[in-house]
């Protein structure tokens, strides 16, 4: 995406590369099959599976394109934030996607082509799991070694003060959509993408970090009535972490809860798992049970979220991860 400026002398310090990683999404409806095939490790989806995924993209207003463009905006916003913190030219951002072009390896190779020798990797996911962030970082690290780049991985930033503040403001804003009397009776439902249940046997920190983020956001927003749930589990035939958001909504409805504000703390962008799984599927499910479901605004390229990422990147580059 970004490139080192021409005219840099050999004596000047090269910029630090920043590989911004995310899951990736197809660039068009025509690219859904190739995208799905990559997710399935080279096994093409059945006609029924392809139709299901394609129909979900079609249902979202605007189709696939806004989803991909949002990631581009996030990387561009992070670049501007780093320029403001460290000075222009100190850091250069590149994209690396798990399941779409430019792939993680391509992002690292682009750094090498630009002469980058030191890099930091960060994922557009604040919480760490060996199955998600860990997998991104292994691919990036392996390619960095091949390219002769010194690579530092940011594992998590789930409790960064700017992140928590940005999310708590969105929770307060979301609750304000309910009328004053109803707002006091509303429940905040934090959610995140489910993973195969075997992560618990691995003593993976994913669940604990999500709960820590949720607790910090609830405290900052002054929310006492909240729950945590999972969503968007894969159909793999093996157990995934639960309960699923639809099960949770069923239970809440049976308890007499009438208003729910979904706060997807495991996601930072408007994408399929938010725009379809929450806004369409979960909302319809809730309404059928007499529950009004609202959702917070996603972070996307929010300035506070960008500051949280930029601060984390700079500390990682300077060997101060964890401060």
TrEMBL record:
SUPFAM superfamilies with a match to the protein in the record: Chelatase
InterPro entries named in the record: Ferrochelatase (IPR001015), Ferrochelatase_C (IPR033644), Ferrochelatase_N (IPR033659)
UniProt: Fe-coproporphyrin III binding residues: 23, 40, 56-57, 136
Annotated EC: 4.99.1.9
Reactions this protein catalyses: Fe-coproporphyrin III + 2 H(+) = coproporphyrin III + Fe(2+)
Residues binding Fe(2+), per UniProt: 193, 273
NCBIfam families per UniProt: hemH
Protein name: Coproporphyrin III ferrochelatase
Organism expressing this protein natively: Cohnella suwonensis
Gene that produces this protein: hemH
């Amino acid at each position: 995406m970004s490139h080192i400026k021409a005219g840099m002398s050999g004596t000047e310090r090269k910029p630090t590369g920043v590989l911004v990683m995310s899951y990736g999404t197809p660039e068009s409806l025509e690219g859904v099959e190739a995208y799905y095939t990559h997710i399935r490790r080279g096994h093409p989806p059945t006609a029924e599976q392809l139709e299901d995924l394609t129909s979900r993209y079609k249902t979202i207003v605007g189709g696939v394109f806004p989803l991909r463009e949002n990631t581009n905006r996030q990387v561009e916003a992070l670049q501007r934030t780093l320029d403001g913190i460290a000075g222009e030219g100190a850091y250069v951002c590149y994209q690396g996607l798990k399941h779409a072009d430019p792939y993680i390896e391509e992002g690292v190779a682009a750094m090498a082509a630009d002469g980058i020798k030191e890099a930091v990797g960060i994922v557009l996911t604040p919480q760490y799991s060996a199955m998600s962030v860990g997998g991104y970082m292994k691919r990036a690290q392996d390619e960095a070694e091949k390219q002769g780049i010194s690579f530092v991985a940011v594992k998590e930033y789930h409790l960064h003060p700017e992140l928590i503040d940005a999310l708590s403001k969105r929770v307060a804003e979301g609750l304000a959509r309910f009328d004053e009397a109803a707002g006091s009776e509303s429940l905040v439902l934090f959610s995140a993408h489910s993973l195969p249940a075997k992560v618990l046997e691995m003593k993976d920190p994913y669940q604990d970090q999500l709960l820590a983020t949720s607790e910090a956001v609830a405290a900052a927003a002054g929310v006492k009535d909240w729950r945590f749930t999972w969503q968007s589990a894969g159909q793999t035939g093996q157990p995934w972490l639960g309960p699923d958001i639809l099960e949770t909504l069923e239970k809440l409805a049976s308890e007499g809860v009438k208003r729910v504000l979904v706060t997807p703390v495991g996601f930072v962008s408007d994408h399929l798992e938010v725009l379809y799984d929450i806004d369409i599927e979960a909302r319809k499910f809730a309404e059928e049970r007499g529950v009004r479901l609202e959702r917070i605004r996603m972070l996307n390229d929010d300035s506070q979220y960008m500051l949280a990422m930029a601060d984390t990147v700079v500390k990682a580059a300077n060997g101060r991860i964890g401060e």
